[in-house]
Amino acid sequence: MRGELFHPGRAEISLDKVLHALSDPIRRDVARTMHRDGPRACGQLSYPIAKSTLSHHLKVLREAGLMTTEIRGTTRVISLRRDDIDARFPGLLDAVQVTAPAPEEALKEI
Predict the structure, then answer these.
(1) Distance separating alpha carbons of residues 15 and 4, to the nearest angstrom
(2) Which of 2, 8, 12, 89 makes the best surface tag, with the fewest CB within 10 Å?
(3) Buried b / exposed e across 45-74, counting CB within 10 Å, b at 16+?
């Protein structure tokens, strides 16, 4: 049995870790998808990368404080911690285009 997943508290969310997490186009697109569509099961995300690589990206987002992961049986449901990020760094998600439609160039990189 695995232990609880680490989620930093609101006060522990670091700007450096958030910016690092959002520096990758796939992680930024995952955050954009969560903003647009709301919580999703990890299996509903489809990217042309290995499952282990996607799991790594989700871990980086979670440990940076951008996402929360809820374990429901054998499913993991992820969601954007928009309220926490907005409270710590107002306007950041807008500035890094998480809340905007994906630019064409970024989608070609994925």
Answers:
(1) 24
(2) 2
(3) beeeeeeeebeebbebbbebbbbbbeeeee
